[in-house]
Amino acid sequence: MDAEPDPRISFEASGTELDSAVQLYEEAYASAGFSATRTDRPFAYRFRVVGDDAMTLRSTRFDGRMQGELEVDDEFVATWTSDGGGRLRVGRQDVDLVPGAPRLFPNDRPFAFDLQDLRQNLVQFDRDYLEGVAAELHGTRRGSLVFDHTAIPAPADLRGWNEQVQRAAAAVFGPAPLTELALAETVRETAIAFLRTFPHEHRAPEIPLLAGAAGRVRQAVEFMHAFAHTPITTTDVAEHVGLSVRGLQQAFQRQVGVAPNALLRGIRLDRVHEELERASAAETTVASVAVRWGFAHLGRFSAAYAARFGQYPRDTLQQPRPVTRRP
């Protein structure tokens, strides 16, 4: 009987050239504009990634100084150093990286970093995967996860996190064969530990069930709300509830008087509206939010947005935010 293929993906690179290091890290984090300079240490770097599409464990050795700007929209990353450190900056807010203290990368907002002479470890989760685990853990519908990257986890939670990371690293980095099922269980256990350790808000959307919606139409509406962030189409919705596309369209027309594709577009417009209401014009653009929710033609998007909300998206983004005063 043939052995099961190893489900892990892995990548490793090292060297002593500054330009090669910059190119490597820009490609690894899908960014540009990084810069590296030498410090008192002889320059060298090493970067290793092992895991799967849902989670990767990463380790970095960087004997030098690296600066740049990142924006991570589709993943959640916890990082800690065993040597060296630096600073993350979001707007005017700084977060220091010091050995032994896990921190989260700011999510959905660009942030600057300035790191030096690092021995760094990271755990990275795919956004869709972690939000799915969070929905199961909290017993709610799938929603957006919002982490406070400045929060310091409780000591007991950190002990549990460290123990789970050690178990995960032994399995993922270890030489022993690892089955797809064993890797999946390791990833899930680490995801649960991540959610229990780092303070977060789970924004499960309220699903306004249209008057008259029942049976498969109700299931279809719930499916649209749960997966509006993915490139689903009316065909996908119809297949999910076991109807033909025509059958789904007729059921929608009969029960709620709106076409399924129009409802899905409206849900996505609502999500854009929610993001723009929370966002800062200094850190977000209308275009980036619109494209993330599937609106590639910005002219038609702006017109549809204005028709639905009575203002253009740029006006929503630029409207004054209430000031929260500390006691």
Provide the fold topology.
Elements: E1 9-15, H1 18-28, E2 35-37, E3 45-51, E4 55-70, E5 75-90, E6 93-97, E7 103-104, E8 111-126, H2 127-138, E9 144-147, H3 155-173, H4 180-197, E10 200-203, H5 215-227, H6 234-241, H7 245-255, H8 260-278, H9 286-292, H10 298-309, H11 313-318
Antiparallel strand pairs: 1-3, 2-4, 3-4, 4-8, 5-6, 5-7, 5-8, 9-10
Observed structural traits:
2 domains, Arc Repressor Mutant, subunit A, disordered C terminus, alpha+beta, eight-stranded antiparallel beta sheet, globular
Tell me what the structure shows.
The protein is 42% helix and 24% strand. Helix 2 packs across helix 4 and helix 3 runs antiparallel to helix 4. It is built from eleven helices and ten strands. The longest helix is centred in the middle third of the chain and has 19 residues. The protein has two domains: 189 residues, Jelly Rolls; 104 residues, Arc Repressor Mutant, subunit A, CATH 1.10.10.60. The C terminus is likely disordered. The protein is of the alpha+beta class and 327 residues long. Strands 1, 2, 3, 4, 5, 6, 7 and 8 form an eight-stranded antiparallel beta sheet that branches. It is globular.
